[in-house]
Amino acid sequence: MSAEPDKKTPSPSQRIKIHQPDAGKADKFNPSNSIYVRAVEGHWTTLRRRMGWVAMLFFLVLPWLPWADRQAVWFNLGEQKFHIFGLTIWPQDLTLLAAVFMIAAFALFFVTTYLGRVWCGYTCPQTVWTFIFIWVEEKLEGARNKRIKLDQMPWDFNKTWRKTAKHLVWLLIAWVTSMTFVSYFVPTTELYTDFFTLNAGGGVYFWVFFFTLATYGNAGWMREIMCVHMCPYARFQSAMFDRNTYIVGYDAKRGETRGPRSRKADPKAMGLGDCIDCDLCVQVCPTGIDIRNGLQYECINCGACIDACDQTMDRMGYDKGLIRYTTENKLDGKQEKVMRPKLVGYGVVLVAMILGLIYAVSAVSPLRIDVIRDRNQLYRENLDGFIENTFTLKILNKTEQAHEYQLSATGLKDHKWIGPESVTVKGGEVYTLPISIAVDPYYLDRPITDIQILVKSDSGEEPIEVSQETRFFSR
C-alpha cells in the first residue's frame, strides 16, 4: 500500500527545536555527577554553623553526663527501660514516647507551614554532617575550583594523599558518630572499654560498623541524593506549604533581565535588572539547584544562596535582598497573611499535645500493680467454711531505690488476707506475690463483689499509694 499523501516528512525548518542541556553543568538528577559546593560567609551561614555545632555538641556530650549511678540518657533495651535523666520509662509507659513523636511531627508541620524547610537547612542531621564533611573536604582539597581541577587530574602523589586523608577523616568522624549513637543504648564507659579490648558482643560491633558506613555514605557520597531522591519529607512538604510560607525566594521583578556588567555601569540604561548572572547562588547550593527558577522541592531553606547574593550585591553597590526569605504572595506584590487557619490549627493542636504530655509525665506513678486472678478456680470453700479467692500480685517498683510496700484490700467486710502484708521490692524489680482473700459467706450478699487491692509505701520522700480493681466471686 502506498503511504498516505498527508503524512510528509517535516523539513528542517519545521522540526521542533529540542533544548540540549549544557554538558558542563552537573545534572542534579544523575547520582554519578558531583556537586562541588562553594564556601560562603554570611549571616545565615554563621547561624547555621552555630546551630549545627550546638546540635553536634549536644549529641556527643549527652551520653557522658552522669545521673546517680548511671548515665543521664540510656535506652536500656535489654531491661526494657528508657532512662532520661530522672525519668524512667517502662514498656507500660511507651505511650509517652508515642506522644513525644506525635508532638515532634506536629512541631515539624507547624514550623514548615510558617518557615518552610528550615528544619532541613539548619538542624537536620543529614545537613549538619554533610556540611562537616564538606568543611573537611575544603581543608584537605582546597576551594571549589581546586577540587574540580583535582578530580580532573590524573592520579599522582598529591591527589592520592589528599583523597586518602579526606576519606580517613570522614571515616573517623563517621566512627565517632556511630560510637556516640550506640552509647545511647550501651553504657558509654562499658562500650568504649569493651570495644577496644575486643570484649564487646557481636551486636555492638555490627551496629558500630553499620552506622559508620551509613554516616560515611550519606554525608560523604550521597549528600544531596538523600535530600532530593530518598527523603520522604521533601515529597510531602508541598501539603504544608502555601503562598504565605516563608521560603528562599528570588525577586524576579527586581533581578530580571540578568546580565553581566561593570560596577560603574547603570543597569537601567542597559535594560538589565540587579542580577549579574554570576551563578554564585548555584555554586553554594548544597543540592545544586538554581533558586532563580522559582520554588523547588529540592531547596532546603539553608540560606546559603542568600549570603552569596548579598555579597555580590555589596560588591556591586546594590541593595541586599535580591534573594531573601520571603513569601510567594510578597514576591507577587500581594499582602501576606501570617495568621491563617492551617497555621493556627497546627499551633493549637501542638500546644494541646504539649500540655497533655506535661500532665501525663507528671502523673506517671513510680509504682504499678497488676492483679491476676487464678484462672483454674473462681473460688473455693476452705476448711473454716470461708469463701476464698486466689490472686497473683505483680508489683513493679519504677524507682531506682528499694521500697517497702504494705498490702491490703477494701470492699469486703471482715475479710482475711492470706499471705504477706508487707514486701520489699528492689528498684526496677517486678515482684510476684500469690495471695488469697477469704470472707465469711454471711457477709456476701451478691455473687460478685468489686474490691480494691491497695499497695502503699511511706519509706520514700513522698508517700506512694496505688490501687487496682478486681472482683471477688462467691458462687
From TrEMBL:
Residues 1-27 are annotated as: Disordered. Keywords: 4Fe-4S, Electron transport, Iron, Iron-sulfur, Membrane, Metal-binding, Transmembrane, Transmembrane helix, Transport. Residues 266-294 form the 4Fe-4S ferredoxin-type domain. Signal peptide: none annotated. The chain crosses the membrane at residues 51-68, 94-115, 168-186, 198-216, 343-361. SUPFAM superfamilies: 4Fe-4S ferredoxins. This is Cytochrome c oxidase accessory protein CcoG. It comes from Shewanella corallii. The lineage of its organism: Bacteria, Pseudomonadati, Pseudomonadota, Gammaproteobacteria, Alteromonadales. The gene is ccoG.
